[in-house]
TrEMBL record:
Entry protein name: Guanylate cyclase domain-containing protein
Record-linked InterPro entries: A/G_cyclase, HTH_77, Nucleotide_cyclase, P-loop_NTPase
Pfam family, one: HTH_77
Highest classification ranks of the organism: Bacteria, Bacillati, Actinomycetota, Actinomycetes, Micromonosporales
Biological process annotations from GO: cyclic nucleotide biosynthetic process; intracellular signal transduction
Guanylate cyclase domain: residues covered: 13-124
SMART domains xref list: CYCc
Highest taxon, organism lineage: Bacteria
A GO term, aspect molecular function: adenylate cyclase activity
Organism: Pilimelia anulata
Length: 888
């Protein structure tokens, strides 16, 4: 220090600076480093020595003292701005870190011998290159700072060699960097959180939600079903809070403890020793006044009542003591915020991104196989497993562990084993053992909670196992034949039942491991037959209600309303086909009618029917010796079976079952049934044969039942190009279809009129009819019909020269038809011809657009198709020849 400059005395602000990575810079620049170092010193001296005293300089380091904290801050920020503005060699900008601290110091012979100097040096060493850090003491001494100076509180930090913690603040201004990693402070971490054995995966949204709750509430209780990953998630979030709580984050696992030992365990987490069996002393609440602490209490279901008392006492103290409680049920104390842990997401993201559940399963699978990567062909199987296990982390971990000895392809067949649906009943461990501790299987964990349920709640849990998915309380009431709300609330509280928000209210469901356990207990209690029989009747009732509007009048049948019941339908059929009333099962199959075809489920429906015929002695004996009162049902079923076979391109089976339906209808001497059979499958599938059916229908005043004959005759007219006659037929049948609630949502007549208009190059009429048909088909869930209509819209686009939109819609229609196992129909050659014509004109661009459309869902394709404007009258009158399209 020059002798003529006096070092400040009293409250002194010390500043330390150096260049981050100076050794690397010296190595990179070589002889040029000296010039950079000189320029860096020149900039710092120009701004820091205006009000500061340069005490020491060595290499890239400066040590200065200021009489005023405000002047020190101003000088440091000005120096940083100047350093950022300088023109440095490429890749060699010196990143200078600066640290400031203010304290009492008196120089002796121009030097300071004060611990405040060392504290300032530690503050500087905590900074990153380009960053200015100061202690809270400096900020207080400086007072109000200019409006463009931002002060960011970085929290309390331990500085090497100093007791306690120092609050560090970051100073920034325009023209300098603002974002840096956390300060480089002492590595001493005040927590005892369990170290994860495996890397944490996903759960970004859940972690953010839980962090926000911890910020807003002093008591947050994380609850959830067995195996849902409560502890892993909560501990992960707590690990990110260690710098926030000055006195640490402390984890207490209550697993295996008797209720009397809980207070002592909690006190130990706060560093207080109590004798086991004694409650918290009155001074326990006072202890918390000196604690800025987060206490994580795990496995709290072992003694919820005791823990509720402990939590109340702890929260009564002062300070920022906070509790993160992990268990299966809330504590039920004032101020508690309850957060229910969801399973991991198992559906792919909107852009096809892998779900958290799939990512977890893939990573654990690779670890189980010694690091061997999962192959692309194995990913769909793992996705099936992740969805089948409903994203439950414990189940996914167990599934991955099996890959040590079984191939990926075998996992889907082992799902029941993984969730405990197969195998012996877990045994209640002895008191004080694992019953109150860590469970080694999902079934054991669920069983522990089940055995502690009151009688009504246990009975309800067993009965709920008959439901496949979320259902409203009214459905539960219908099946159990009593008010379920009180025991249902108990099951939700202990996390055995999930309450799922729904626009229509709340729905309730069991996760797969809970359902598997409850189903075993249902069978063991001798209640299965009655419960599943009532469930099947409830499904039949729900299907029947789809045909009735709120005002009691017939409603347009919406297949989309059946889709949410798919799981319930499968389970009801599985039970009734195997062990229930076969006639009840047959009525269920018949009630679904066109849904089987529109959803590409013809093979499944035919399999159910064949099994049921077998239980009843076979289709031929049923035809020849029909049980009393079941004749009309069997006629309709045989006819449905024929249609299912035809939809699967199995013409021989279609003919056989149509013949059985006809024979049985004639034996019943029922003209209406005979007409229905002949409308679908006339003895002679000719124009005259269909016209004969239509004449009979008119005489019987059963035009609605004869609509299939209209479609059959229309097919023949289409094939011979009798367009005018076909239009007359369809226009006449249009009001008949509109009067039939079961079929009017499909708008088959409008779709046929649209295709006929396309064949006649009447694009205006085609657009009108196809758009109307597609809107109805999408609204009412006639998916396969919508695929054909979208293909018709593609033809209409190609005809007006919009080849790329046509290509996308052709791709979407073809892909969605294939996904629904559709076979070629009468319009297939027409679509194929127009598609190939457009492809020839479009070349590679057509193929690329077609591939894009093939990735669209049916809803996406329909949205595009319905957004296409109607053609102008001029366009509608012109027939677009290939040459005209090419020129366009």
């Amino acid at each position: 220090m020059p002798a003529r400059v006096a070092a400040p005395s009293g409250q002194v602000t010390f500043v330390f600076t150096d260049i981050e990575g100076s050794t690397r810079l010296a190595r990179v620049l070589g002889d040029r480093y000296q010039a950079l170092l000189t320029a860096h010193r020149r900039v710092l001296r120009a701004h820091l020595t205006v009000h500061g005293v340069e005490l020491f300089t060595e290499g890239d380091s400066f040590f200065l003292a200021f009489a005023g904290a405000r002047e020190a801050i101003d000088g440091c920020l000005a120096a940083q701005r100047a350093l950022y503005r300088c023109d440095w060699p490429a890749g060699a900008r010196p990143r200078v870190r600066m640290g400031l601290h203010t304290g009492y110091a008196v120089p002796t012979a121009g030097e300071y011998a004060s611990p405040e100097v060392h504290r300032a040096a530690r503050v500087a060493s905590a900074a990153h290159g380009g960053q200015v850090l100061c202690s809270a003491a400096t900020a207080r001494e400086a007072g109000a700072l200019p409006a463009d100076v931002e002060v960011r509180d970085l929290g309390l930090h331990r500085l090497r060699g100093f007791d306690g913690r120092t609050r560090l603040l970051q100073l920034t201004c325009p023209g300098v960097d603002r974002d840096f990693p956390r300060p480089r402070t002492s590595g001493v971490v005040r927590h005892n959180l369990p170290a994860p054995v495996t890397p944490f995966v996903g759960r970004e949204r859940e972690r953010a939600d839980l962090r926000a709750l911890l910020q807003a509430h002093r008591l947050v209780t994380v609850v959830g079903a067995p195996g849902v990953g409560k502890t892993r998630l909560a501990v992960r979030v707590a690990a990110g809070q260690t710098e926030r709580f000055a006195d640490g984050v402390w984890y207490v696992d209550l697993a295996g403890l008797a209720p009397a030992a809980v207070p002592a365990a909690v006190a130990a987490g706060l560093g207080v020793r109590l004798e086991t069996g004694r409650g918290l002393p009155p001074r326990m609440a006072e202890i918390t006044t000196a604690h800025d602490v987060l206490l994580v209490l795990d496995t709290c279901e072992v003694a919820p009542d005791v823990l509720a008392q402990v939590a109340t006492q702890l929260l009564a103290g002062c300070g920022d003591t906070r509790l993160l409680v992990i268990g299966r049920q809330p504590l039920g104390v004032p101020g508690e915020c309850v957060w229910r842990t969801p399973p991991m997401g198992f559906q792919p993201g909107p852009g096809g991104e892998p779900s958290d559940a799939l990512t977890l399963l893939r990573r654990r699978a690779e670890a189980a196989r010694g690091g061997r990567a999962v192959e692309r062909a194995e990913l769909p199987v793992l996705q099936e497993v992740a969805a089948g296990l409903e994203g439950l982390p414990l189940a996914l971990e167990l599934a991955a562990a099996q890959l040590r000895c079984v191939p990926v392809a075998d996992l889907p067949a082992r799902l029941d084993e993984l969730v405990g649906a197969a195998g012996p009943e877990p045994v209640e461990p002895a008191a004080g053992g694992a019953a109150a501790g860590r469970m080694t299987s999902l079934a054991e964990s669920v069983g522990w909670s089940y055995r502690r349920l009151p009688g009504r709640a246990a009975r309800l849990l067993r009965a709920l196992s008959v439901f496949a998915g979320p259902v409203p309380a009214e459905a539960i009431r219908w099946v159990i034949q009593e008010d379920p709300l009180e025991p249902l609330a108990t099951l939700v509280d202990v996390s055995l039942v999930e309450a799922v928000p729904d626009p229509a209210g709340v729905r309730y469901q069991l996760l797969r491991p809970v359902r598997a356990y409850a189903a075993r207990r249902l069978a063991g209690a001798g209640e299965e037959a009655a419960a599943r029989g009532r469930h099947a009747r409830w499904v039949a009732r729900e299907l029947a209600l789809q045909h009735v509007a709120e005002d009691g009048r017939p409603a347009t049948w919406a297949l989309s309303a059946i889709d949410p019941l798919r799981g319930e339908i499968d389970d009801a059929l599985a039970w009734t086909v195997a062990a229930g009333d076969p006639w009840q099962a047959l009525r269920l199959v018949r009630a679904l009618d066109a849904w089987w075809i529109e959803r590409g489920a013809t093979a499944r429906a035919r399999a159910w029917l064949c099994r049921l015929y077998g239980r009843l002695g076979g289709p031929d004996p049923l035809t020849d010796a029909t049980p009393p009162g079941q004749g009309p049902l069997l006629v309709e079923l045989f006819l449905l079976h024929s249609r299912l076979a035809a939809a699967a391109a199995d013409a021989p089976a279609a003919a056989v079952f149509a013949g059985r339906a006809r024979r049985l209808a004639r034996s019943l001497d029922d003209p209406g049934l005979c007409l229905l059979v002949d409308a679908w499958a006339p003895v002679e599938a000719t124009e005259d044969g269909y016209r004969d059916v239509l004449r009979r229908a008119a005489a019987l005043r059963m035009a609605g039942d004869a609509l299939p004959a209209v479609h059959g005759l229309g097919t023949l007219l289409w094939q011979r190009g009798a367009w005018s006659e076909l239009v007359d037929l369809l226009v006449g049948a249009r009001p008949v279809e509109a009067s039939r609630p079961a079929v009017r949502g499909r708008r088959t007549i409008d779709a046929a009129l649209g295709l006929t208009a396309l064949a006649r190059d009447d694009l205006v009429s085609a657009h009108h009819h196809l758009s109307g048909a597609l809107r109805a088909q999408v609204a009412f869930g006639f998916e396969l019909a919508a695929c054909n209509t979208i293909a018709g819209v593609a033809v209409r686009c190609a005809a007006t020269g919009d080849g790329l939109t046509a290509a996308r819609l052709f791709g979407a229609a073809d892909a969605n038809r294939a996904a629904r196992s559709a076979v070629a129909d009468v319009a297939a050659p027409f679509f194929a011809q127009r598609e190939e014509r457009a492809r020839a004109l479009g070349g590679p661009a057509f193929d690329a657009a077609y591939a894009q459309g093939a990735t669209w869902s049916l809803a996406e394709a329909a949205e595009v198709a319905l957004a296409i404007p109607a053609p102008s009258p001029a366009e509608g009158r012109r027939c677009r020849t290939p040459n005209a399209v090419a020129r366009r």
